[in-house]
Amino acid sequence: MTAELDTSVTTRAVFLIGGYERNDARRFFARIAKELQRFAACWTVRAEISDPTFDDAGHMATARISYGDGAASCQTDFTFLSFDDIVKKDGARPFVVRLAVYLAGFFDYIFSGTMFRFFAANWRFALYFLYPFASLCFFAFVGWMVYRLTALLGLPGGPIIPALLGIAAAVGVGRYLGQRYFVFHLMDLWSFSREHLRGRRQDIEAHYSLWAERIADRIAANRYDEALLVGHSTGGALILDLAAILAEKLRQEGRPVDFSLMTVGSTSLKVALHSAAKKARRRLASLADYPDIRWTEFQALTDIINFYKCDPYRMAGLRHERGDAFPKLHQVRFKGMLDAKQYKRIKRNFFRVHYQFISANNRQYFYDFFMITCGPRPLSAVSEKSKPGGVAGAGCREVA
Q1: In this structure, are strands 259-264 and 53-55 parallel, antiparallel, or unpaired?
Q2: Could you tell me if 338 and 362 are in contact, meaning their C-beta atoms sit under 8 angstroms apart?
Q3: pLDDT (tens digit per residue) in 138-197
C-alpha cells in the first residue's frame, strides 16, 4: 500500500475525524459536495461525489469521490467518522451541570500548569483557551453593573429587585452572546477534552474500537494505493488515538501496519501537554515504532486554533529514533490558498479561518485539502517546493 513519491494514486481510502461540533454525516457530505465544486473550478478538473452510505452502528458514512484531470484519475472512498452523538449528549445536559463541569476543567488546566504550557507553546491558542471563561466573566460583569445601577435608584424591597434585574441581565446577555459566539459550545469542548485526557470518556473509546474494526476490514477487503487517516481540530488528537489502536489491532492480527496520518489545524497538544494525559502520550509514542506509518501535519499562523510551528511529538515530551521526520511539518499560508477578496472576507472570523484547512481553495497552492485527499498524488509528494497539487503541468493561476 505504500505510495512512493512519484507513484500515481488511483485508489485511496480516507478516514476523517473532524472537530468537536454538531456535524452529522449528512450535513458533512452536503458541505463536501459544495466544496468539491469550488475545488473542481479552481483546478479545472472533474470531481464528483456519490450519495453516502451509512453505518449508523459504527457512526460512519462513506461516499466515493471520482477525480479526473485528463491525464490521471483517482477513486477515493471518503469516510466520515462521526462523534456527533457525543457532542449532542454533552450539549443536552442542564446548563448548571455544563457550567460546573466546565469550571472544574478550566481550573484543572490552570492548576496543572497546562495553560502556562499553552502560552509557552503558542500564546494565540492560550487566548483561545481563555475565551469561554473571559466571556462568562463578562456576562457576570454585565449583571453586576445592572445590579449596582438599579440599587442606586432606591427601589422598594432593598437589594432584591436590583439583584433579580442583575441576574436577568446576565442571563439575557449570556444567552444571546453565548449562543451566537459559541461560548457554551466551547465550554463543552474543554469539558470533553479534560474528561477524555483523564480517561473518563468511555463513549469515545467505544467509538475507537468500532472504527478500528471497520477500518481494518475495509483496507483488508480493498487494494488501496493509499490509506489516509485525517484529523482536523479536536479530531487531530482523536485520530492519533485511533491510529495507535488500529496499528495495534493490525499487528496482533499479523497484517501490515501501513497507512498515512494527516493532521490539519490540529489541537492535539491540548491533550498531550496535560500531565494527566498518560494514555494519550503512550499511544502517541507507540506510533513511531511502526516504520510504515507516515505522519504529516499542516499548520497555519492565521489560525489561532492550532499550534503553529510546534512539533506535537517532541512537545509531548517524546523522542524517537526514526530516520524520517515524524511528524513531517508544513506551515501553510491561507493568503496563498485564497484570493485577496476571499481572504479579507474570512480573516477576522477565526472559526471560518480554522475550517479553511478542510475547505476548497480558490487559488492553486501546494496545500489543497481536496487535491491531497482526492487527487492522484500521494501525501508523501506534497511539499512547499513541489508543484502545486497533482494536475500534470498545472500552474499557479488565481481562480475567482
Answers
A1: unpaired
A2: yes
A3: 999 999 999 999 998 877 777 899 999 999 999 999 999 999 999 999 999 999 999 999
In angstroms, the Cα distances linking 312 to 5, 218, 263, 359, 398 are 24, 29, 10, 23, 33
- Quick one: pLDDT at residue 393? 34
pLDDT at 145: 96
Task: For residue range 308-364, list pLDDT tens digits in order.
Answer: 999 999 999 999 999 999 999 999 999 999 999 999 999 999 999 999 999 999 999
- E strands, 51-179, are 53-55, 60-68, 73-81
Strands 60-68 and 226-232: unpaired
Q: Per the structure block, which three cell numbers stand in for 9?
A: 494514486
Q: In the Cβ-directed half-sphere of 49, how many Cα atoms lie within 13 Å?
A: 23
CA 302 – CA 93 distance, rounded (Å): 34
Q: Which cell goes with 34?
A: 459544495
Q: What is the 3-state secondary structure (H, E, C) of 249-316?
A: HHHHCCCCCCEEEEEECCCCHHHHCCCCCHHHHHHHHHHCCCCCEEEEEEEECCCCCCCCCCCHHHHC
Among 17, 176, 16, 14, CA closest to 87: 17
**Hey, is 228 helix, strand or coil?**
strand
Q: Give 395: exposed, middle or buried? Use CB within 10 Å, 0-12, 13-18, 19+.
A: exposed
**Amino acid identity for residue 381 in this structure:** A
Residue pair 125/301 in contact by the 8 Å Cβ criterion? no
Do residues 71 and 392 touch, judged by C-beta distance below 8 A?
Answer: yes
How many angstroms separate the CA atoms of 80 and 320, rounded?
A: 31
